[in-house]
Protein 1
Amino acid sequence: MIKIWSMKKDENAAARKKPKTSAAQIRVQKDLTELDLPSTMKTHFADPADLLNFTLTITPDEGMYKGGTFKFSFAINTNYPHEPPKVKCTQKIYHPNVDLEGNVCLNILREDWKPVLNLNSVMVGLQYLFLEPNADDPLNKDAAQEMSKNRDQFLSNVKISMRGGRVASNVYDNVLAS
Amino acid sequence: MATLVNGSATADWPGRYFHIDQILDKPGPRTDPGFAAGAEAPFLRDQAKILVIGAGGLGCEILANLALTGFKHIHVIDMDTIDISNLNRQFLFRSKDVGKSKAIVAADFIMQRVPGVEVTPYFGKIQDKGDDYYMQFNLVICGLDSVEARRWINATLVNLVDPENPESLKPLIDGGTEGFKGQARVILPTITSCYECSLDMLNKQTAFPICTIANTPRLPEHCIEWASVLEWPRVHGDKKMDTDDPEHISWLYKTAASRAKEFNIEGVTWSLTQGVVKNIIPAIASTNAIIAAACCNEAFKIATSSAAYLNNYFMLIGTDGIYSYTFEHEKRADCPVCGGESLDFPISMEVTVEELIDMLIEKQDIQIKKPSLSTPTRQIYLQAPPQLEQATRPNLEKKVSELVPGGGEVTVTASTLPFSLSLNIIYN
Ligand SMILES: [Zn+2]
């Protein structure tokens, strides 16, 4: 058997056993403690000991969604950062890029995710959706169509939906409360 | 072939290892300086204990190769049972074995076929086993199709390395195939680049934009993803999808097929559905055979010092003709498993968490600003976000010795560190 031990370099000889903390756990700790969020975004941990599941609240201070409070759940699995976090909107909202089940169309949450991205990039990306909704990548087709065809009607629908009103056949959640 | 009753034919017959002994009985130009002519064969046959992880496409080949090159103490782990679709390439299994444990059937088959070889199966997960189990082996070979399992065994073997104990360093030989492509590599935990160091080389699994899936499906895969990503949670709520459950696959298949019909898309089948949701890339028997052979060749060379072993990454590309490339993959300083720094940190039992943080900030040689600290089981102090800072703030006044046992590890992250620093807390 090859004597592998003799190949350990001196500096390595001092190396200790690494902690059993998983790579995902360390990376999430790093991401969260280095978050650089504007005052319009806040994280909330239902269990502060569990860093892998939390809520993000976005309160846009400009744009057509100004005044609303939008909530997203984040669920991170042990393959993070090789898999993106799973993010869902926990409210029923009227938005071209969010469907009625809370699925979000944001490229870095799926096809364009890379391990060099982090939680900060995802959060900034989500906030951007409220400033610049994108009618070209629709998840709520009706909202997207309205947005590109009749912008005034769309803006009015946004206002109605945010109050918890009805747009077409759907009643949306009131996001002005809280 | 003569029928041998299991267990009765442990004696070797003359000339059994004639060809292999040509290599082991005398040194050659490529033998390692530590090569001991005549002593390597007994080590290989009597002492060397090797663990094979995975008894699937690669595992079957690996087990056969090891047994035939003279390894006699082989252990094999696999959590899967035999599926009828395995039979075309996983040649240790027969129709009568469908539904049985891959590890157990493979072990029995090898013991029947190659006299004197002892194969010990374990039908279960690698995660069921602890450090004591992995310590007993000289070498570990992986033939897995799961990134997660590979990362786990890689991290476990890196963590197993104890600076006081040379026996704790277990070479890991990792084989992997994807269609006509494959790789074999030798990982010497803490010495060479590890599996985690190279994770960014993985082919990313294709993901389609969610809005394409939702609105403009063009491919059968789009319909299947629609069923699994959007319809499953909508219809089943929090019930988790189990890609190993045929009923779940059937539901996805039916849902995807009706959507495909609606959009005039052809090609949604049961097996494509299973392939897409499990991210299956067709396995090719010949690729498995080549990669398994490369892995077993490395195991043999390392176990016998008979030739220079692979340094450290062999890549096979069989998609257009045959191309192979060998290179040294470099260790990453910021690898979360084998990289990062580790420091012995002697402190008194009286030091508080706040004082420990000040000591870290003042340490000239590590340049840390705003460190966040945790142990494998709890957070000690996190600088942000505000809620977590508040929740962990009471710990600042506590003594480190109340939170971390002697010899315990503290993981430190900070924006100024490439990844993390681990402190080995020693009380004086
Ligand atoms: Zn590494």
Protein 2
Amino acid sequence: MTRRVAIVGAGIVGTTLAYHLVQAGHRVDIFENGPDIPYPHAPQFANEVLYANRFAAPAQAIPEPLPSGVKGLTQSGDYPGKIDDERSMCVGGQATRWWGITPRLLPESFRPKTLHGYGDDWPITYGELEPYYCQAEHYLGISGSGDDNPFGPPRSQPYPLPPFALSHTDMELAAKLSACGLRVHTTPQARTRHAYGGRPACQNVGKCATCPVGARYSPNHHLALAMRTGLLTLHTNAVARRIVLKGNRVRALVYHPDHGAVAKECVADVVIVAAGAIESARLLLLSSASGIHRNGLGNDSGQVGRNLGFHHVWRGHMDFKQVVMAGRAGPPTMLSHQFIEPAGPRAYGGVSVELFDYFSDAHIESLARRHWRSGAQMVEALRPALHCRSITFNAETQPGPGKYAALSKKSTDRFGDPFMHVHYELDAFDHETYHVSSRLAERFALALEADSVELDPVSNYWSAHHHLGTCRMGSSPRDSVVDSFGAVHSTPGVYVCGGSTFVTATALQPTLTMVAMAIRSARHVSEMLRTS
Amino acid sequence: MAAAEAVTGVRPLRGHYEAYYRHQAAHRLAYRDLYRRFAKVVQDMASARGHGDFTICDLPTRLEIIEVIRDDPATAQEFEIPVFQETLATYARTDAWLALGYVSWEGSARGLEVYRQPFAGSTP
Ligand SMILES: Cc1cc2nc3c(=O)[nH]c(=O)nc-3n(C[C@H](O)[C@H](O)[C@H](O)COP(=O)(O)OP(=O)(O)OC[C@H]3O[C@@H](n4cnc5c(N)ncnc54)[C@H](O)[C@@H]3O)c2cc1C
């Protein structure tokens, strides 16, 4: 008998689940708050690269803006950005606009408490996840090298595609760094070195955030393949509002089609929430029922919304005497994983150092922020940028009492349901990580004989749109919301998948791990539906 | 386009400026009218100087006309940002990089080989 699965959110996690479940013969309905967008993203690319500038926003926004009352997150603490603006709500979610940097976590990443004395250990090991990492790399079409990164984890299979080579300048810089004991390597990326699985080969058009041809992976790719099976129904502009239980077991998902006032029910054997860390927690909290669910699903111990973790990115740039002509290779090239897992007990996070062949955007913008009389005048002002190259630190964080998401007491959506409120503030661990990053920046600059290096102040940190935690996985409902498959404790049929289930944020980009875990969860759900 | 050539200093202009203006005109009513008014202003000024058509004026004449428009507070108010600064913003992302010595700009298909070679262009 075909079973019915409802998935909330058509981001990379929701679409990965949907694709694998329909391949296994299940009927899937996927509910997405936002609109669909044309794929490949050539119109969006033209908008962003050609038509948008500091004077004129593109006339047709892609994705089109959401109706008012759909987004309304409030925030407190010291996070300098507007978190609501970091959430892309459309088919494909954030991965319509990501860079596709896709490292695996290390075996050590799953055991921070045991190895370093902070955070908590994950209820899953690298060894258990490794086969799914292989599948995820094939699924996304990752170009990378298993050989050039001495700090990389063990792997049972090579990457499906060869890596993108370092640029000429990268090679020169790498030699200098290596002479000073600093190791750099290529960047694994969900971008096609060769044509792959129906996607064309990359032609180095840009920085990858928007790819006009689909060389950089976008969830739209597998969504289209899944739709062809006839087993998947995509509901766009449809907000999921409640998960309904019968006893402790899931019965249905309540949603509003076309952002309308009328609610509908999708009766389902399984509901999987893949709505990103903030909205996933919100849906569990809004779906309160009687008994152990009185404070929301999976929230008997008040864990939903806790343990929020961002990555902390500090951007900087180095200035050189010589011209370095950064930006000839637009996409990510060179990075260092040497400092992601310093051994032993410590009270600061690991960092991944990105030395991409970029000039610093901030540098360019500050040069270009004036009104100009002529092209020639502008070129003269831009000339110093030829001597400049970016250096970026992507830092590990640990959960703590100053980092959480909860239902807002002040702000409600168009149905009267509370939006989320996020409180986020740096703690002593984060400040120490920043000091470590600053010292590393000096060390890299010295090795590269840069004239100067400048790092953003500690307060100017950025999450890189990596919102993690809030529904963390664990073995006990006392300190977690879901198990390692994403099954909400004591609530059969309800799952949460994605970065919201991460126990810690690590120093590495999270999305490959989310996809590997989604493939694992899809297999688990499929087996469970077959045998139940 | 003749005005854009003059203000950016790029000759001949490639199609991305035209694509930009067409996009704005297609999606924003105000821009369509504004571009029409701008065309009329430069045309009238060219005629007043004894030239039939702004687009066939030599570069110094076009520049002179543009300077007058940009220095007069009334016309500058109307055209400085949507015509001149937006044109220069497009230039900053495209032809400025050629002027700086790059072989192409971000947003064009640059291939996977050139960036691996030593930089061959000149940095004027
Ligand atoms: C510019 C940028 C660069 C990035 N670069 C990288 C990178 O290099 N490497 C990396 O690992 N990660 C990167 N990321 C992060 C990465 O894109 C995300 O980690 C990933 O896409 C998250 O996927 P998701 O499916 O969990 O969530 P999302 O993409 O947030 O998708 C969740 C979806 O759920 C929908 N939704 C929410 N609530 C509801 C509801 N109630 N009803 C219906 N639908 C709902 C939302 O509209 C959304 O579309 C980047 C992100 C950005 C924006």
